[in-house]
Design goal:
Elements: H1 3-6, H2 8-23, E1 24-26, E2 31-33, E3 62-68, E4 76-82, E5 90-94, E6 102-105, E7 107-109, E8 112-113, E9 116-117, E10 120-126, E11 134-139, E12 146-151, E13 162-167, H3 174-184, E14 191-194, H4 210-223, E15 228-229, H5 250-255, E16 271-275, E17 278-282, H6 294-302, E18 313-317, H7 334-346, E19 351-354, E20 360-363, E21 366-367, E22 381-382, E23 388-392, E24 413-417, E25 421-427, E26 432-439, E27 449-454, H8 456-466
Parallel strand pairs: 2-24, 13-14, 14-15, 17-18, 18-19, 19-23
Antiparallel strand pairs: 1-2, 3-4, 4-10, 5-6, 5-11, 7-10, 8-9, 11-12, 13-25, 16-17, 20-23, 20-24, 21-22, 25-26, 26-27
The structure holds fe (ii) ion.
Protein backbone atom coordinates (compact mmCIF):
# COMPACT_ATOMS: atom_id res chain seq x y z
CA UNK A 1 0.00 0.00 0.00
CA UNK A 2 1.35 3.43 -0.77
CA UNK A 3 0.73 6.82 0.77
CA UNK A 4 -2.94 6.87 -0.33
CA UNK A 5 -3.79 4.20 2.23
CA UNK A 6 -1.87 5.88 5.08
CA UNK A 7 -4.03 8.93 4.65
CA UNK A 8 -7.24 6.92 4.25
CA UNK A 9 -8.82 7.50 7.69
CA UNK A 10 -8.72 11.22 7.10
CA UNK A 11 -10.14 10.80 3.59
CA UNK A 12 -12.87 8.51 4.87
CA UNK A 13 -13.99 11.02 7.48
CA UNK A 14 -14.13 13.69 4.84
CA UNK A 15 -16.05 11.40 2.52
CA UNK A 16 -18.52 10.57 5.29
CA UNK A 17 -19.02 14.24 6.03
CA UNK A 18 -19.67 14.99 2.34
CA UNK A 19 -22.23 12.17 2.16
CA UNK A 20 -24.03 13.38 5.26
CA UNK A 21 -24.19 16.93 3.96
CA UNK A 22 -25.61 15.51 0.73
CA UNK A 23 -28.41 13.75 2.58
CA UNK A 24 -29.60 16.59 4.74
CA UNK A 25 -28.33 20.12 4.81
CA UNK A 26 -28.95 21.46 8.29
CA UNK A 27 -28.97 25.15 9.10
CA UNK A 28 -30.55 27.55 11.58
CA UNK A 29 -33.92 26.40 10.36
CA UNK A 30 -35.04 22.81 10.01
CA UNK A 31 -34.23 20.38 7.29
CA UNK A 32 -33.55 21.08 3.64
CA UNK A 33 -33.98 17.68 2.10
CA UNK A 34 -31.17 16.46 -0.12
CA UNK A 35 -33.43 14.11 -2.05
CA UNK A 36 -32.22 13.96 -5.65
CA UNK A 37 -35.00 14.01 -8.21
CA UNK A 38 -35.15 13.57 -11.97
CA UNK A 39 -34.14 16.51 -14.09
CA UNK A 40 -36.22 15.95 -17.23
CA UNK A 41 -38.47 18.78 -18.25
CA UNK A 42 -42.06 18.60 -17.09
CA UNK A 43 -44.31 18.63 -20.17
CA UNK A 44 -48.05 18.48 -20.68
CA UNK A 45 -49.74 15.33 -21.87
CA UNK A 46 -50.67 15.68 -25.59
CA UNK A 47 -54.26 16.42 -26.58
CA UNK A 48 -54.69 12.90 -27.98
CA UNK A 49 -53.54 11.28 -24.73
CA UNK A 50 -55.85 8.55 -23.46
CA UNK A 51 -56.02 10.49 -20.17
CA UNK A 52 -58.08 13.12 -22.01
CA UNK A 53 -60.36 10.64 -23.76
CA UNK A 54 -63.87 11.91 -24.48
CA UNK A 55 -66.45 9.45 -23.11
CA UNK A 56 -68.27 7.59 -25.92
CA UNK A 57 -71.91 8.17 -26.80
CA UNK A 58 -73.99 11.03 -28.14
CA UNK A 59 -73.72 14.14 -25.99
CA UNK A 60 -72.09 12.08 -23.23
CA UNK A 61 -71.48 14.01 -20.00
CA UNK A 62 -67.80 14.69 -19.48
CA UNK A 63 -65.62 16.52 -16.95
CA UNK A 64 -67.85 15.32 -14.12
CA UNK A 65 -66.91 16.83 -10.77
CA UNK A 66 -68.52 17.21 -7.38
CA UNK A 67 -67.99 19.56 -4.47
CA UNK A 68 -69.69 20.16 -1.13
CA UNK A 69 -72.97 21.97 -1.73
CA UNK A 70 -73.74 23.66 1.56
CA UNK A 71 -72.23 24.58 4.92
CA UNK A 72 -72.66 21.29 6.76
CA UNK A 73 -72.10 18.67 4.05
CA UNK A 74 -75.70 17.53 3.46
CA UNK A 75 -75.69 18.84 -0.12
CA UNK A 76 -73.47 18.21 -3.13
CA UNK A 77 -72.96 20.25 -6.28
CA UNK A 78 -72.76 17.93 -9.31
CA UNK A 79 -71.19 19.50 -12.42
CA UNK A 80 -70.54 18.20 -15.93
CA UNK A 81 -70.20 19.34 -19.53
CA UNK A 82 -72.07 18.27 -22.65
CA UNK A 83 -70.66 19.16 -26.06
CA UNK A 84 -73.27 18.37 -28.73
CA UNK A 85 -76.35 20.08 -27.34
CA UNK A 86 -77.50 21.24 -23.91
CA UNK A 87 -79.32 18.04 -23.05
CA UNK A 88 -80.74 17.53 -19.59
CA UNK A 89 -79.49 19.24 -16.42
CA UNK A 90 -81.25 16.68 -14.27
CA UNK A 91 -79.43 14.46 -11.78
CA UNK A 92 -81.01 11.17 -10.73
CA UNK A 93 -79.67 9.86 -7.43
CA UNK A 94 -80.31 7.53 -4.55
CA UNK A 95 -78.76 4.99 -2.22
CA UNK A 96 -79.73 1.95 -4.29
CA UNK A 97 -77.50 1.67 -7.33
CA UNK A 98 -80.23 0.05 -9.42
CA UNK A 99 -83.04 2.38 -8.37
CA UNK A 100 -82.23 6.08 -8.41
CA UNK A 101 -85.43 7.29 -6.86
CA UNK A 102 -84.57 10.92 -6.28
CA UNK A 103 -84.01 13.69 -8.79
CA UNK A 104 -82.96 17.30 -8.88
CA UNK A 105 -82.98 19.81 -11.70
CA UNK A 106 -79.92 21.93 -12.36
CA UNK A 107 -79.05 24.63 -14.87
CA UNK A 108 -76.52 24.99 -17.60
CA UNK A 109 -74.36 27.84 -18.71
CA UNK A 110 -71.69 28.45 -21.34
CA UNK A 111 -69.20 31.15 -22.11
CA UNK A 112 -67.00 32.51 -24.88
CA UNK A 113 -63.34 33.29 -24.38
CA UNK A 114 -61.69 35.02 -27.34
CA UNK A 115 -62.16 32.51 -30.18
CA UNK A 116 -63.30 29.64 -27.96
CA UNK A 117 -66.86 28.71 -27.06
CA UNK A 118 -67.39 26.32 -24.18
CA UNK A 119 -69.65 23.30 -24.12
CA UNK A 120 -72.81 23.32 -22.01
CA UNK A 121 -71.68 23.42 -18.40
CA UNK A 122 -74.26 21.92 -16.03
CA UNK A 123 -74.47 22.47 -12.28
CA UNK A 124 -77.04 20.77 -10.11
CA UNK A 125 -77.17 20.84 -6.31
CA UNK A 126 -78.65 17.79 -4.63
CA UNK A 127 -79.81 18.45 -1.08
CA UNK A 128 -81.03 16.81 2.12
CA UNK A 129 -78.50 14.00 1.89
CA UNK A 130 -78.03 11.64 4.81
CA UNK A 131 -74.68 11.67 6.52
CA UNK A 132 -72.17 8.87 6.12
CA UNK A 133 -74.08 7.27 3.26
CA UNK A 134 -73.10 6.01 -0.17
CA UNK A 135 -75.07 7.69 -2.95
CA UNK A 136 -75.20 6.82 -6.62
CA UNK A 137 -75.98 9.44 -9.22
CA UNK A 138 -76.60 9.58 -12.95
CA UNK A 139 -76.19 12.43 -15.44
CA UNK A 140 -76.80 12.69 -19.18
CA UNK A 141 -80.45 11.75 -18.84
CA UNK A 142 -82.12 11.37 -22.26
CA UNK A 143 -78.87 10.86 -24.15
CA UNK A 144 -75.85 8.97 -22.88
CA UNK A 145 -76.33 8.22 -19.20
CA UNK A 146 -73.23 7.94 -17.01
CA UNK A 147 -73.38 6.77 -13.41
CA UNK A 148 -71.04 7.57 -10.51
CA UNK A 149 -71.09 7.42 -6.71
CA UNK A 150 -69.79 9.20 -3.61
CA UNK A 151 -69.98 8.88 0.15
CA UNK A 152 -71.31 11.73 2.26
CA UNK A 153 -69.25 12.80 5.29
CA UNK A 154 -70.16 11.80 8.83
CA UNK A 155 -72.33 14.25 10.76
CA UNK A 156 -70.47 17.36 11.87
CA UNK A 157 -69.09 16.75 15.34
CA UNK A 158 -66.00 17.06 17.50
CA UNK A 159 -64.66 13.50 17.55
CA UNK A 160 -65.28 12.48 13.95
CA UNK A 161 -62.27 11.02 12.14
CA UNK A 162 -61.88 12.26 8.58
CA UNK A 163 -59.05 12.31 6.05
CA UNK A 164 -58.32 15.10 3.60
CA UNK A 165 -55.93 15.04 0.68
CA UNK A 166 -54.01 18.19 -0.24
CA UNK A 167 -53.15 18.90 -3.86
CA UNK A 168 -52.02 22.18 -5.38
CA UNK A 169 -50.89 23.56 -8.73
CA UNK A 170 -51.80 20.34 -10.51
CA UNK A 171 -51.88 21.18 -14.21
CA UNK A 172 -51.97 18.39 -16.79
CA UNK A 173 -48.42 17.17 -17.34
CA UNK A 174 -47.16 13.61 -17.11
CA UNK A 175 -46.09 14.49 -13.57
CA UNK A 176 -49.60 15.75 -12.77
CA UNK A 177 -50.86 12.32 -13.75
CA UNK A 178 -48.33 10.67 -11.44
CA UNK A 179 -49.44 12.94 -8.57
CA UNK A 180 -53.11 12.16 -9.06
CA UNK A 181 -52.45 8.42 -9.35
CA UNK A 182 -50.29 8.56 -6.22
CA UNK A 183 -53.08 10.36 -4.35
CA UNK A 184 -55.68 7.85 -5.58
CA UNK A 185 -53.57 4.98 -4.25
CA UNK A 186 -54.31 6.17 -0.72
CA UNK A 187 -57.47 4.33 0.33
CA UNK A 188 -58.07 6.63 3.32
CA UNK A 189 -58.35 10.05 1.68
CA UNK A 190 -61.98 11.11 1.39
CA UNK A 191 -61.97 14.67 0.09
CA UNK A 192 -59.40 16.82 -1.70
CA UNK A 193 -58.62 20.30 -0.47
CA UNK A 194 -57.35 21.84 -3.70
CA UNK A 195 -54.98 24.77 -3.25
CA UNK A 196 -55.46 26.62 -6.52
CA UNK A 197 -53.99 26.66 -10.06
CA UNK A 198 -56.05 24.06 -11.85
CA UNK A 199 -55.54 23.62 -15.59
CA UNK A 200 -52.76 26.08 -16.54
CA UNK A 201 -54.70 26.71 -19.78
CA UNK A 202 -53.52 30.31 -19.57
CA UNK A 203 -49.99 29.18 -20.41
CA UNK A 204 -51.18 28.38 -23.93
CA UNK A 205 -51.60 30.87 -26.79
CA UNK A 206 -54.87 32.79 -26.33
CA UNK A 207 -55.36 30.95 -23.00
CA UNK A 208 -56.51 28.01 -25.09
CA UNK A 209 -59.59 26.97 -23.14
CA UNK A 210 -59.51 23.54 -24.75
CA UNK A 211 -56.99 22.88 -21.97
CA UNK A 212 -59.71 23.61 -19.40
CA UNK A 213 -61.71 20.81 -21.03
CA UNK A 214 -58.81 18.35 -21.10
CA UNK A 215 -58.10 19.11 -17.45
CA UNK A 216 -61.70 18.42 -16.51
CA UNK A 217 -61.53 15.05 -18.27
CA UNK A 218 -58.17 14.24 -16.67
CA UNK A 219 -59.35 14.74 -13.08
CA UNK A 220 -62.80 13.21 -13.53
CA UNK A 221 -61.58 9.82 -12.34
CA UNK A 222 -61.26 11.40 -8.87
CA UNK A 223 -63.56 14.43 -8.91
CA UNK A 224 -66.64 12.44 -9.97
CA UNK A 225 -66.32 10.23 -6.90
CA UNK A 226 -65.14 12.48 -4.11
CA UNK A 227 -65.55 16.21 -3.57
CA UNK A 228 -62.72 18.57 -4.33
CA UNK A 229 -62.88 21.79 -2.33
CA UNK A 230 -61.74 24.59 -4.62
CA UNK A 231 -59.37 27.49 -3.95
CA UNK A 232 -58.73 30.01 -6.75
CA UNK A 233 -55.13 30.60 -7.81
CA UNK A 234 -53.47 33.07 -10.16
CA UNK A 235 -53.88 30.70 -13.13
CA UNK A 236 -57.64 31.00 -12.69
CA UNK A 237 -57.61 34.78 -13.27
CA UNK A 238 -57.51 34.54 -17.10
CA UNK A 239 -57.40 38.32 -17.38
CA UNK A 240 -56.37 39.04 -20.97
CA UNK A 241 -57.28 42.54 -22.15
CA UNK A 242 -55.14 41.99 -25.25
CA UNK A 243 -57.69 39.33 -26.27
CA UNK A 244 -60.64 41.46 -25.21
CA UNK A 245 -61.08 39.35 -22.07
CA UNK A 246 -61.38 41.79 -19.21
CA UNK A 247 -63.57 39.86 -16.77
CA UNK A 248 -61.24 38.01 -14.37
CA UNK A 249 -61.88 34.35 -13.49
CA UNK A 250 -64.35 33.83 -16.35
CA UNK A 251 -63.59 30.15 -17.18
CA UNK A 252 -63.12 29.20 -13.51
CA UNK A 253 -66.35 30.82 -12.38
CA UNK A 254 -68.37 29.12 -15.08
CA UNK A 255 -66.85 25.68 -14.52
CA UNK A 256 -66.23 25.33 -10.79
CA UNK A 257 -69.08 26.30 -8.52
CA UNK A 258 -68.69 26.44 -4.73
CA UNK A 259 -71.29 26.88 -1.95
CA UNK A 260 -70.22 30.39 -0.95
CA UNK A 261 -73.68 31.71 -0.15
CA UNK A 262 -74.21 29.15 2.61
CA UNK A 263 -71.36 30.72 4.58
CA UNK A 264 -72.74 34.25 4.00
CA UNK A 265 -69.97 35.08 1.55
CA UNK A 266 -70.66 37.48 -1.29
CA UNK A 267 -68.12 35.88 -3.61
CA UNK A 268 -67.15 32.35 -4.73
CA UNK A 269 -63.50 33.14 -4.06
CA UNK A 270 -63.79 33.12 -0.27
CA UNK A 271 -66.12 30.88 1.72
CA UNK A 272 -66.16 28.19 4.35
CA UNK A 273 -67.54 24.72 4.93
CA UNK A 274 -67.85 22.33 7.84
CA UNK A 275 -66.91 18.77 7.07
CA UNK A 276 -66.86 16.11 9.81
CA UNK A 277 -64.72 17.65 12.61
CA UNK A 278 -63.12 20.33 10.43
CA UNK A 279 -64.05 23.93 9.73
CA UNK A 280 -62.41 24.91 6.46
CA UNK A 281 -61.98 28.53 5.46
CA UNK A 282 -61.01 29.23 1.86
CA UNK A 283 -59.40 32.61 1.21
CA UNK A 284 -58.72 34.48 -2.02
CA UNK A 285 -55.15 35.62 -2.65
CA UNK A 286 -56.28 37.44 -5.80
CA UNK A 287 -59.31 39.33 -4.55
CA UNK A 288 -59.11 42.45 -2.43
CA UNK A 289 -58.37 41.64 1.21
CA UNK A 290 -57.46 45.02 2.70
CA UNK A 291 -59.42 46.66 5.46
CA UNK A 292 -63.08 47.43 4.64
CA UNK A 293 -63.07 45.09 1.61
CA UNK A 294 -65.79 42.42 1.34
CA UNK A 295 -63.31 39.60 2.02
CA UNK A 296 -61.93 41.37 5.11
CA UNK A 297 -65.35 42.03 6.55
CA UNK A 298 -66.46 38.46 5.84
CA UNK A 299 -63.40 36.90 7.51
CA UNK A 300 -63.67 39.26 10.46
CA UNK A 301 -67.23 38.02 11.02
CA UNK A 302 -66.48 34.40 10.13
CA UNK A 303 -63.69 33.55 12.54
CA UNK A 304 -65.71 34.21 15.73
CA UNK A 305 -68.43 31.90 14.36
CA UNK A 306 -66.20 28.83 14.48
CA UNK A 307 -67.34 26.66 17.38
CA UNK A 308 -64.34 24.51 18.31
CA UNK A 309 -66.57 22.33 20.47
CA UNK A 310 -68.39 21.36 17.29
CA UNK A 311 -65.53 21.52 14.75
CA UNK A 312 -62.24 21.45 16.68
CA UNK A 313 -60.04 21.56 13.57
CA UNK A 314 -59.72 24.99 11.98
CA UNK A 315 -58.03 24.76 8.56
CA UNK A 316 -57.38 27.67 6.20
CA UNK A 317 -56.70 27.30 2.47
CA UNK A 318 -55.17 29.97 0.27
CA UNK A 319 -53.07 30.03 -2.87
CA UNK A 320 -50.09 32.31 -2.17
CA UNK A 321 -48.17 31.18 0.95
CA UNK A 322 -47.30 33.58 3.75
CA UNK A 323 -44.19 31.67 4.82
CA UNK A 324 -42.12 30.64 1.82
CA UNK A 325 -38.34 30.36 1.71
CA UNK A 326 -38.01 29.55 -1.99
CA UNK A 327 -36.75 32.15 -4.46
CA UNK A 328 -40.03 31.95 -6.33
CA UNK A 329 -43.04 34.11 -5.51
CA UNK A 330 -40.99 35.36 -2.59
CA UNK A 331 -43.11 37.52 -0.26
CA UNK A 332 -46.11 37.55 -2.61
CA UNK A 333 -48.29 36.56 0.34
CA UNK A 334 -46.76 39.18 2.61
CA UNK A 335 -49.42 41.87 2.48
CA UNK A 336 -52.21 39.40 3.21
CA UNK A 337 -50.13 38.02 6.08
CA UNK A 338 -49.85 41.50 7.56
CA UNK A 339 -53.62 41.91 7.34
CA UNK A 340 -54.81 38.56 8.72
CA UNK A 341 -52.05 36.88 10.72
CA UNK A 342 -53.07 38.42 14.09
CA UNK A 343 -56.52 36.86 13.63
CA UNK A 344 -55.05 33.43 12.85
CA UNK A 345 -53.10 33.56 16.12
CA UNK A 346 -56.04 34.93 18.11
CA UNK A 347 -58.39 32.23 16.83
CA UNK A 348 -55.77 29.48 16.99
CA UNK A 349 -55.94 28.25 13.42
CA UNK A 350 -54.45 24.76 13.35
CA UNK A 351 -52.92 24.74 9.92
CA UNK A 352 -52.75 26.89 6.79
CA UNK A 353 -52.30 25.12 3.46
CA UNK A 354 -51.13 27.02 0.39
CA UNK A 355 -49.85 26.25 -3.10
CA UNK A 356 -48.33 28.55 -5.73
CA UNK A 357 -44.67 27.68 -5.08
CA UNK A 358 -43.94 24.47 -6.98
CA UNK A 359 -42.29 22.65 -4.14
CA UNK A 360 -42.95 21.49 -0.60
CA UNK A 361 -42.35 23.34 2.67
CA UNK A 362 -43.59 23.11 6.27
CA UNK A 363 -43.04 25.74 8.94
CA UNK A 364 -42.78 25.51 12.68
CA UNK A 365 -45.52 27.24 14.70
CA UNK A 366 -44.44 30.85 14.27
CA UNK A 367 -45.96 34.30 14.15
CA UNK A 368 -44.74 37.71 13.09
CA UNK A 369 -47.34 40.05 14.51
CA UNK A 370 -45.44 42.24 16.98
CA UNK A 371 -44.18 44.83 14.52
CA UNK A 372 -45.60 48.34 14.88
CA UNK A 373 -43.35 50.21 12.41
CA UNK A 374 -41.02 51.56 15.11
CA UNK A 375 -40.26 48.68 17.52
CA UNK A 376 -38.06 46.62 15.18
CA UNK A 377 -39.86 43.39 16.11
CA UNK A 378 -40.33 42.19 12.56
CA UNK A 379 -39.10 38.61 12.58
CA UNK A 380 -41.04 35.35 12.89
CA UNK A 381 -40.88 34.01 16.45
CA UNK A 382 -42.00 30.70 17.92
CA UNK A 383 -45.68 30.96 18.90
CA UNK A 384 -47.71 28.00 20.15
CA UNK A 385 -50.97 29.78 19.26
CA UNK A 386 -49.89 30.18 15.65
CA UNK A 387 -50.74 27.80 12.79
CA UNK A 388 -48.33 25.51 11.01
CA UNK A 389 -47.89 26.82 7.45
CA UNK A 390 -47.59 24.21 4.73
CA UNK A 391 -46.95 24.76 1.02
CA UNK A 392 -48.08 21.94 -1.24
CA UNK A 393 -47.70 23.62 -4.65
CA UNK A 394 -46.04 20.50 -5.99
CA UNK A 395 -48.81 18.93 -8.07
CA UNK A 396 -46.58 18.69 -11.13
CA UNK A 397 -47.68 21.30 -13.67
CA UNK A 398 -45.78 22.15 -16.85
CA UNK A 399 -43.92 25.08 -15.28
CA UNK A 400 -41.71 22.62 -13.43
CA UNK A 401 -40.24 22.57 -9.94
CA UNK A 402 -39.12 25.49 -7.82
CA UNK A 403 -35.60 24.34 -7.01
CA UNK A 404 -33.90 27.53 -5.88
CA UNK A 405 -34.14 28.17 -2.14
CA UNK A 406 -33.12 31.09 0.02
CA UNK A 407 -30.02 30.28 2.05
CA UNK A 408 -29.55 29.68 4.84
CA UNK A 409 -32.87 28.03 5.60
CA UNK A 410 -34.81 30.52 7.75
CA UNK A 411 -35.47 29.61 11.36
CA UNK A 412 -39.23 29.38 10.76
CA UNK A 413 -38.83 26.68 8.10
CA UNK A 414 -39.03 23.16 9.49
CA UNK A 415 -38.72 21.09 6.30
CA UNK A 416 -38.43 21.88 2.64
CA UNK A 417 -37.95 19.80 -0.46
CA UNK A 418 -38.27 20.52 -4.13
CA UNK A 419 -40.20 17.48 -5.34
CA UNK A 420 -43.63 16.81 -6.77
CA UNK A 421 -46.13 15.19 -4.43
CA UNK A 422 -49.26 15.60 -2.33
CA UNK A 423 -50.15 15.67 1.36
CA UNK A 424 -52.68 14.00 3.63
CA UNK A 425 -54.27 15.43 6.79
CA UNK A 426 -55.78 12.60 8.78
CA UNK A 427 -57.97 13.75 11.66
CA UNK A 428 -58.10 11.06 14.34
CA UNK A 429 -60.30 12.74 16.94
CA UNK A 430 -60.85 16.05 18.70
CA UNK A 431 -57.25 16.45 19.77
CA UNK A 432 -55.03 14.57 17.33
CA UNK A 433 -54.36 14.56 13.60
CA UNK A 434 -51.59 12.90 11.66
CA UNK A 435 -50.13 14.78 8.74
CA UNK A 436 -47.96 13.31 5.98
CA UNK A 437 -46.37 14.51 2.77
CA UNK A 438 -45.76 12.03 -0.04
CA UNK A 439 -43.24 12.66 -2.79
CA UNK A 440 -44.15 11.10 -6.13
CA UNK A 441 -41.06 8.93 -6.32
CA UNK A 442 -42.06 6.94 -3.24
CA UNK A 443 -44.69 4.30 -2.69
CA UNK A 444 -47.94 5.34 -1.05
CA UNK A 445 -46.95 4.02 2.37
CA UNK A 446 -43.87 6.23 2.53
CA UNK A 447 -44.14 9.67 4.14
CA UNK A 448 -41.25 11.96 3.24
CA UNK A 449 -42.39 14.38 5.95
CA UNK A 450 -44.83 13.82 8.79
CA UNK A 451 -46.10 15.53 11.90
CA UNK A 452 -48.56 14.78 14.68
CA UNK A 453 -50.88 17.73 15.23
CA UNK A 454 -52.23 18.39 18.70
CA UNK A 455 -55.31 20.54 18.21
CA UNK A 456 -54.37 24.18 18.84
CA UNK A 457 -57.58 25.18 20.57
CA UNK A 458 -57.90 22.13 22.82
CA UNK A 459 -54.21 22.03 23.58
CA UNK A 460 -54.43 25.54 24.96
CA UNK A 461 -57.72 24.86 26.71
CA UNK A 462 -56.28 21.74 28.36
CA UNK A 463 -53.15 23.59 29.42
CA UNK A 464 -55.26 26.37 30.90
CA UNK A 465 -57.47 23.95 32.81
CA UNK A 466 -54.39 22.13 34.15
CA UNK A 467 -53.02 25.29 35.72
FE1 LIG B 1 -49.88 30.01 -8.56
Amino acid sequence: MGSWWRGAPCHLELLLAVILVGVVNRSDGGVTSGFVRKVEKTIDMPLDSDIFRVPPGYNAPQQVHITQGNLDGTAMIISWVTEDEPGSSEVLYGTDEDKLELSAEGKYTRYKFYNYTSGYIHHCTIRHLKYDTEYYYAVGIGHTVRKFWFTTPPAVGPDVPYTFGLIGDLGQSYDSNVTLTHYESNPKAQTVLFLGDLSYADNYPNHDNVRWDTWGRFIERSTAYQPWIWTAGNHEIDFAPNLGETVPFKPYRHRYHVPYRSSSSSSPFWYSIKRASAYIIVLASYSAYGKYTPQYKWLEAELPKVNRSETPWLIVLMHAPWYNSYNYHYMEGESMRVMYEPWFVKYKVDVVFAGHVHAYERSYRVSNIAYDIVNGKCEPVPDESAPVYITVGDGGNLEGLATNMTEPQPSYSAFRESSFGHAVFEIKNQTHAYYTWHRNQDGNAVAADSLWFYNSYWKTANEASAM
